[in-house]
Specification:
Two copies of one chain form a homodimer. Helix content of chain A is 55%, strand content 9%. In chain A, strand 1, helix 1 and strand 2 form a beta-alpha-beta unit. The longest helix of chain A is centred in the middle third of the chain and has 30 residues.
């Protein structure tokens, strides 16, 4: 019996499939060998109980026995404490992993997601484009000098940064060979491939149930 | 002797004074009674050594003896582990504090800062305004039902969320009485007042040295 349950939507349209953020938590559990169940909330009609668990009406959120967390970044840091595969135990490796995990959330995704949002809203030459270029160029400079962000090996920081950088509009934005190689390398990992296939199968099963 | 050094710029123009993010770390140390030194890097001419410590050329970053971290959110979570004032020791309180700390960084600031950036770039009716409204309304709904975000008492999550929400353009954006009372209550704390006064004095001393 697993005590971990990853909560996601019951169904989403084809566009976001393979990118809904429960994938981050599935991927972390697959890397660490942690068993988990998947629970669902309605995406079409978000109920008060959903907002009680996730105040913005989003997914994912995580149950770990009695503990409950929302925010994919918080759930990742929580899961990471269960396995040295995700988070080194030595203080220097732990600090470096923490800083790059937060960097993915607050320095990179803070620009990529709003830029992407304006982009798909019909404003591809939006006012965040210069800032996006600068952030991605700095990341390219880092990744051109090393294979992993923290501790000289795969950590949860790479999992998250790769998930941030693999958004198609971001991945196609300019030529950054070290970043492209990094994203390709991370998303080739069997744990990512399984997490992605499982998410796609989850939503395909929902299609079948609706048909 | 303190082993903690908070790094910030040697000087900034008047506009950002009181808002440079070393304030978050000063505030956390003041709340927790942790002694710290303040180090400076040049803001006008950012050197390679600065980018080695902070890959985007920003501040703050933190030294804790041999450990070094960038990202204010990562440094806050690192400091929080030193004091139950900032982070409850029980697993439920810790998880709740972690989720709201990440929420401030990745659900609220991910919208407020890009919106603010477009706003001060001359586009106050920008394409992020609807998203900002939605996020702030959800936070208002949460804060109208409780005084603190996590564990029923002040934590590092409140410190960070209040620092995110006190940005003047965000604070003035619409009428949200519970959020306004929350920001007023948090920024009235002596630890915030001292951190802010110390940052203002730091930059005023730099003016005097340049005069």
């Amino acid at each position: 019996m697993s005590d971990l349950t990853i909560w996601t939507y019951d169904w989403v349209p084809p566009g976001p499939r393979g990118f809904v953020r429960d994938l981050r938590l599935r991927w972390a559990c697959e890397e660490a060998g942690l068993a988990y169940a998947v629970g669902t909330v309605a995406s079409d009609d978000r109920q008060a109980a959903h907002f009680e668990r996730q105040p913005f009406g989003q997914v994912p959120f995580l149950d770990d026995g009695e503990l409950k967390l929302f925010e994919s970044g918080a759930a990742l840091l929580h899961l990471a404490r269960k396995s040295e595969v995700l988070l080194p135990a030595d203080p220097a490796g732990e600090a470096e992993t923490l800083q790059w995990t937060i960097s993915a959330l607050n320095s990179v995704e803070m620009v990529t997601v709003p830029w992407w949002f304006l982009n798909i809203s019909g404003d591809p030459q939006n006012g965040l484009t210069g800032w996006l270029t600068s952030r991605l160029d700095h990341i390219e400079a880092v990744l051109s000098r090393r294979e992993w962000l923290a501790a000289g090996r795969f950590t949860v920081a790479d999992l998250l940064m790769a998930d941030v950088l693999r958004i198609p509009q971001v991945r196609r934005f300019g030529e950054r060979p070290a970043t492209e190689a990094y994203v390709a390398r991370l998303t080739a990992r069997p744990a990512f491939q399984k997490a992605r296939a499982d998410q796609l199968a989850h939503f395909a099963a929902a299609d079948a149930a609706r048909a």
